[in-house]
Amino acid sequence: MSSPPTAPPSPPRTAQDAEPPAGGRTPVRRVLAFLRNTWRGLTSMRTALVLLFLLALASLPGALLPQRSLNQQLVDQYFADYPTLAPWLDRVGAFDVFATPWFAAIYLLLMISLCGCLLPRSLEGVRNARSVPVATPRNLARLPHHASATLDEDADAVMDRVRSRLRVGSRFGWRGAESTHEQGVRSLSAEKGYLRETGNLVFHISLVGLLVGIAVGKLVGYEGQVVVLANGSQFCNASILGYDSFRPGLQVDGTDLQPFCVRINGFTASYLPNGQPDTYRADIGYQDTEQVESGDADTWSPFELAVNHPLRLDGSRVYLTDHGYAPRFTVTWPDGEQRTGEIQWQPVDRTTLLSQGATKFERPGIADDAQRQKSSLAITGLFAPTSSGGDVVTSTYPEMRNPEVAIDVLRGDLGLDDGRGQSIYSVDQAQVDSGALVRVARANLVPGESTTLDDGTVIRFDDVTQYVVLQVSHDPGQTSVLVFAILILLGLGMSLSIKRRRFWVRVTPAGDGRTLVELGGLARTDQAGYGEEFDRLRADLLERPDAPGPDSATPEKDG
Amino acid sequence: MLSAYSDMLFKAALVVYTIAMLMHAVEYVMAKSTTPAAPGASGSATAVAAGAEGTAGSESPGTTLTATATATPPGGGEVVGGGTRSRADRFGRMAVSLTILGVLLHVGAIATRGVAVARWPLGNMYEFASAICLAAVVTWLVVLRRTAGRGRSVRTVGAFVLSPVFILMFLAGTVLYAQAAPVVPALRSYWLVVHVTTVTIASGLMMVAGAASVLYLIKRSGRLTEFAARLPDVEALDRLAYRITVVGFPIYTFAVIAGAIWAEAAWGRFWGWDPKETVAFVAWVVYAAYLHARATAGWRTTGAAWINVLGLATIMFNLFFINMVVAGLHSYAGL
Ligand code: HEM
Questions:
Q1: Do A357 and A344 meet the contact criterion of CB atoms below 8 Å apart?
Q2: At A264, which helix (H) or strand (E)?
Q3: Is residue A58 located within the same domain as residue A177?
Q4: Distance of alpha carbon B141 from the chain centroid
Q5: What is the predicted pLDDT for the residue at B258?
Q6: Is the dihedral of CA B215, B216, B221, B224 positive or negative?
Q7: Shared domain check, A234 and A164
Q8: Closest to A52 (Cβ–Cβ): which among B147, B288, B301?
Q9: Cβ distance of A48 and B69 shorter than 8 Å
Q10: Residue B282 to residue A59, Cβ atoms within 8 A
Q11: A347 and A283 share a domain?
Q12: I need a labelling partner for B120 at 20 to 30 A (CA). Which of A181, A428, A465, A471 fits?
């Protein structure tokens, strides 16, 4: 058997084929004909194929070029490396492939084509499901699978046996139609494997469902990151302002976030000797929406937040995505005023967690705005959880075994009031360059040590707190996406494993109570492998499995 | 310690596969062609091919019957003579026995590696590539078993199935080799085990399917007649590619879904167009196109085979290029 027919019930070939005969063409008709042809063209198998290719091709730049949604720095780097090419690529959206109109156009066309293809097929499927198997061909010996034998039974007995063997009429058996011809000849045509079509439809329909689910998530979902100190600090999902970064869905204005709170009681990380992280774990308490709304602020349900183990609160999930260190400094001014600052520093080396940052202070107790501004302090530099020691501090291990900071203390105007946002991890270099901000001390400190500035201000490095980065994701479409994904798999499995196949039996009385039984079989799909099943049927029905007559043959034996 | 045994077993498996491949090559050279020799060869091959094309288009049962009946040459098209056959046959049998031995060694290598690192042994590219090869060889043995008998065996192409395995394993053992080590926290999840295992199995299957499609294209191209004459007939190759693909594709689909489930737990979203995810999507779409092509007039034969090869190329591209050059979140590549 050569590559057998797999075609669905004849999809329209091309638009031209379907053109109605010319004549009496009014403009309206022409438009209608054009629309009809476009529609047929769009829903043809060939178009689906082309669109699938286009989809694959259009996705590729998303993998090969840096994407803004994943990593803005890499995109900037690309602009620096290819200053002429990059703007052109940017113009066609090559750095935001999956948000471009052309990508959307391709998959929307595919969806339309899919629906246009499915609708008629679904209807046909319904009709098909009730149809009777095609009549028995005249010459069964010309089928790919065939066999015959003369049995010592009368026709009725044979037909009874055939019916019960094929379980005709049973839900899991073959669907059969019997007919009687002249001279007592009777035949049965049977067909099985209708579920293949069903599987195919389930697959394609679920594909649409899956995409709808994803679209819902994109519309009403959101995602935000927030840094929380692991010292009993809390985070409540109340407004966008609570987040360090926030990515709303198209329909999210941030006024209606699902309320819940988490409290980070502690964080532990363990590492392998080479510095590779082994486990991350945050000991947290949470209050779900109900608790928050009932105003019970004291009850916290315990939870262990870890990588691969998010907190799920109906519709929202909380993830532990990162962690780091927040050194705590206390500044004591000569007038006795004291302030403590504790803010996250940013890891600059992933394997040793050497971190950098800037802890900023405004001088308290000064009424004059300009004066206060000019006497701000910033403690910047490096933090090493396990310090190498020596003058130039580096970190040798990510765990906090021998913490030390190497700091510069800057005094002057931090430039915080000029309205521009500035990084929490550094001071504004422009202020330094202009001389508004001056370095007044440099020191290496371990916890408990302090350094004194020229004016008598004491800066003490108190201790270090760990912080965690939490990600909150809200995606109400997610469950339906999972359900459709499972249906896709089921449909696919069904449609690719079930064989649509036919089986025919013709019995002819041969006198003396003997009966000539002819069998024929045909697999309607690529899935051959019908040979074995046919062999079994033949053996069961003709009762002589070891000695099939010379006129029987099953060329197909595989799969 | 144990990982040293694992490395030894790996090398042994590679050596055994190599010998098996060479024996298959000898078998191939000694075997008589499946189509009558030299001058007539190409003509006869195209005749068969034309028959196949004719059948493919038909949907009504009537035409199918006649076409199918004529397109099936008696005896499955294998015209093989006496003496050479038995010697070629002996080499082929030895090659298969060696392949089985190789699989046992290979399984041992992967299992001891798993014990040595106390985790599922699919944590870096070396382990991954090695396991894909195992999946491919096992697929091949299953194919042999299921096509055995009645002159329908495709065993003669063993050398062409084992050579990509040989190349990939060689690369795994040299360029990609990584010391046994634990993996980062994000990679510790049952879903990850499910995900990479199924991806591996699917890739191994697709490797054999892809090899079959390449051979199909060679045979159909009408070129390399001398070489192609000994290949199984086009239908057998086409069927081989299709059968394996329809097993591999749902497994691959499942693997992608499992990956999404894991990504949801580990990274906070089930799909984020990370480069690895993107190329996995592309490969999935290409294989969907393959299945579509087989139901589209004019694409059933050569077109579909090209798409199948393209699918395999995409999977391999994802394995090598994306891991080694692009590296997104899936940067556990561990080179
Ligand atoms: C979103 C894009 C699509 C994808 C990913 C897709 C995927 C698939 C896959 C994987 C199969 C093989 C499994 C099966 O038989 O169920 C398949 C079969 C099929 N698809 Fe699609 N499909 C898409 C769109 C379409 C469109 C637009 C049409 C209509 C023109 C279509 C018509 C068919 C038909 C008729 C089959 C059955 C082929 C056969 O019997 O072997 N598909 N599709």
A1: yes
A2: strand A261-271
A3: no
A4: 11
A5: 94
A6: positive
A7: no
A8: B288
A9: no
A10: yes
A11: no
A12: A471
Q: A383 is written with which tokens?
A: 């933090």
Residue B292's CB is within 10 A of a number of other CB atoms, namely 21
Query: For residue A16, what pLDDT is reported?
Result: 41
Three state DSSP letters for A6-67: CCCCCCCCCCHHHCCCCCCCCHHHHHHHHHHHHHHHHCCHHHHHHHHHHHHHHHHHHHHCCC
Over residues A439-470, the pLDDT tens digits come to 999 999 999 999 999 989 999 999 999 999 99
Residue A230 burial (CB count, 10 A): 20
**Looking at residues A204-216, what average pLDDT do you find?**
91
Interface contact A1-B55, CB threshold 8 A: yes
Residues of chain B with pLDDT under 50: 35-83, 331-335
The whole-angstrom separation of Cα B253 and Cα B202 is 9
Burial grade of A86 (CB within 10 A; 0-12, 13-18, 19 or more):
buried
Euclidean distance between CA atoms A321 and A83, whole angstroms:
34
A376 HSE (CA, 13 A, CB side): 24
Instruction: Say how far apart CA A413 and CA A437 lie, in whole Å.
Output: 6
Q: How far apart are CA A211 and CA A249, in angstroms?
A: 16
Q: Encode pLDDT of A98-112 as tens digits.
A: 888 999 899 899 999
What is the distance between the alpha carbons of residues B182 and B119, in angstroms, rounded to a whole number? 7
Length of chain B: 335
Q: A312 - beta bridge partners?
A: A317
Alpha-carbon distance A235 to nearest alpha carbon in chain B (angstroms): 18
Residue A61 lies inside a defined structural domain of this protein: yes
B238 to A3: CB separation less than 8 angstroms, yes or no: yes
Counted domains in chain A: 4
Amino acid at A426: S
Domain residue extents for chain B? 1-32+87-182, 184-335
Tokens of B308: 């199948």
Please indicate if any CB of chain A lies within 8 Å of the CB of B275. Answer: yes
Tokens of A349: 């080396």
Can you read off the two tokens belonging to residue A172?
């899991």
Burial class for A381, CB neighbours closer than 10 Å (0-12, 13-18, 19+): buried
Read off the amino acid at residue A246: F
Q: Are residues A299 and A429 in the same domain?
A: no
For residues B150 and B58, what is the distance between their CA atoms, to the nearest angstrom? 27
Distance from CA of B332 to the nearest CA of A (A): 12
Q: What is the pLDDT of residue B186?
A: 67
CA of A492 to the centre of ligand 1 (A): 10
Find the helix or strand (DSSP H, E) in which B99 lies: helix B83-117
Q: A72 and A166 share a domain? A: no
pLDDT of residue B224: 77
For β-strands A186-192 and A501-509, DSSP reports them as antiparallel
pLDDT digits (tens, 9 = 90+) for A246-280: 888 888 887 778 889 999 999 999 888 888 888 88
By CA distance, what is B261's nearest residue in A?
A: A482
Q: Are B157 and B28 in contact (CB under 8 A)?
A: yes
**pLDDT at A384 (0 to 100):** 95
Is residue A332 domain-shared with residue A387, that is, in the same domain?
yes
Q: Which of A69, A93, A125 is the last residue of a domain?
A: A125
| Residue B87 CB coordination number (10 Å) | 13
Encode pLDDT of B149-200 as tens digits: 655 678 888 889 999 999 999 998 888 887 777 777 667 778 888 999 999 9
Residue A340 has pLDDT above 50, yes or no: yes
- pLDDT at residue A284, rounded to an integer: 94
Domain identity same for A459 and A390: yes
- ipTM given for this complex: 0.81
Give the pLDDT of residue B131.
94
Distance CA B105, CA A237 (A): 55
Alpha helices in A360-473 (DSSP H): 369-374, 429-433
Tell me the chain B residues in contact with residue A13 when contact means C-beta distances shorter than 8 Å. Answer: 297
Domain span including residue A255: 214-322+472-488
Residue A279 is encoded by which pair of tokens? Answer: 């486990």
Same domain, A368 and A444: yes
